[in-house]
Design brief:
The chain is α/β, with parallel strands linked by helices and 397 residues long. It has 16 helices and 15 strands. The strands form four sheets. Strands 2-8-7-6-5-3-4 form a seven-stranded mixed β-sheet, with helices on both faces. The structure holds pyridoxal-5'-phosphate.
Length: 397
């Protein structure tokens, strides 16, 4: 249960809060905080450079972090590139893939993408004269797969789609999209920022070419994220960030690239954060990702039941097959005002467009309020949310 887990999270003990903004970032357990402190107190040195013991120890720990992440998603360790986060992963990839595109090529994304999976492609499309196309969303808050089948064709070079929507909670049919993309020889990228923290992920099963996610949304530290890529894809791809650590040999005129994953990890990496992320993964594996998923499902179902009893509330997202969050609006009240009253009641939620403006436009919404759950949340947190919404209605009516 969620309650017994709360004691692992110092912030949740130090502050009286119903923390329901987990899709933005999660709290950190003491195990992760301690792993970072331990690293700085006992193992800190740069990686890949020193011959001395301390540097070798840091390098080993950093390599082990790649291994831990790899096992977690069913990949090989040389297929795991550490980045700053999902945004960074997609930008790095977009810059590298740009070199494989030509005028008239098509990039397919969807109407429910986070801005970080829209804007890099807008920029790339502009630069090379490619066309950016959007898979539409049905009135049931799902990808319109009939339209997707027409949109993805022999002109398509890249398909980049969110696995679990950070606003609707919709879980998209990745396997089907992967097969569709591969049928036409296109590369498929999955934005796993919300799915990797919430469900068991097996990149071999999904057969995606690339997967991006962030450590801080899965009880890990900020400043660390992952770009997974199939080895064959990564080997063929040119890097887009250059400098130390990513080269084999350098002359005044040219350079050759290091092996994977170093080729894509220029500069001193976020070593402590990578070690923190590995500890976060151990924490989640200890619970079991199936349990993590089920807990999220239970809380979301409970929130749907509780919130739908409030008059004038409109809940977005599919009825079934959805992730651990719930976005809603209260009739006649601005989302910012709802969240301000909730704040006064010690309930932290997100209000606005949640970096999904085209999605909100699709449903003609200015914004919404989003409550998102994680392993330590309880039904009491949701009761507090429902009570807060009722209070907001009374005060603001
Ligand atoms: N994609 C989705 C679906 C997200 O929810 C987020 C989180 O904000 C991101 C991408 C961007 O993640 P980050 O801010 O960690 O780079």
């Amino acid at each position: 249960g969620g309650n017994s887990m709360k004691k692992d999270f110092p912030l949740l003990t130090n502050i009286d809060i119903a923390y329901l903004d987990n899709a933005s970032t999660t709290q950190k357990p003491k195990q992760v905080i301690q792993a970072i402190v331990d690293f700085y107190e006992n193992s800190n040195a740069n990686v890949h450079r020193g011959i001395y013991n301390l540097s070798q120890k840091a390098s080993l720990m950093y390599a082990e972090a790649h291994e831990t992440v790899a096992k977690f998603i069913g990949a090989n360790e040389d297929e795991i590139i550490f980045t700053k986060g999902t945004t960074d992963s997609i930008n790095i990839l977009a810059q590298s893939l740009k070199k494989t595109l030509k005028e008239g090529d098509e990039i397919v994304i969807s109407e429910m993408e986070h801005h970080s999976n829209i804007i890099p492609w807008q920029q790339v499309a502009k630069e090379v004269g490619a066309r950016l196309k959007y898979i539409p969303i049905t009135d049931k808050f799902e990808l319109d797969m009939d339209k997707a089948k027409k949109l993805i064709n022999k002109k398509t070079k890249i398909v980049s789609v969110v696995h679990m929507s950070n606003t609707l909670g919709t879980i998209n049919p990745i396997k089907e999209l992967t097969e569709l993309a591969h049928k036409f020889g296109a590369v498929i990228i999955i934005d796993g920022a919300q799915s990797v923290p919430h469900m068991p992920i097996d990149v071999r099963g999904l057969d995606c070419d690339f997967l991006a996610f962030s450590g801080h949304k899965m009880v890990g530290p900020t400043g660390i994220g992952v770009l997974y890529g199939k080895r064959a894809r990564l080997e063929k791809l040119d890097p887009s960030v250059f400098g130390g650590g990513m080269i084999k040999e350098v002359t005044k005129e040219a350079a050759t690239w290091a092996d994977l994953p170093e080729k894509f990890e220029a500069g001193t990496p976020a070593i402590a954060q990578a070690i923190g992320l590995a500890e976060a993964i151990r924490y989640l594996e200890n619970i079991g990702m199936k349990k993590v998923f089920v807990h999220g499902q239970k809380l979301t179902k409970y929130a749907q039941e509780q919130l739908s009893q409030i008059e004038g509330i409109e809940i977005f997202g599919p009825e079934e097959n959805r992730g651990s969050m719930i976005a809603f609006n209260v009739k006649g009240i601005h989302p910012h005002d709802v969240s301000e009253i909730l704040n006064q009641k010690g309930v932290a939620v997100r209000a606005g467009n949640h970096c999904t403006m085209p999605l909100h436009n699709r449903f003609e919404l200015q914004g919404s309020t989003r409550a998102s759950f994680y392993i330590y949340n309880t039904e009491e947190d949701i009761d507090r949310l429902a009570k807060g919404i009722r209070t907001a209605k009374e005060i603001l009516k």
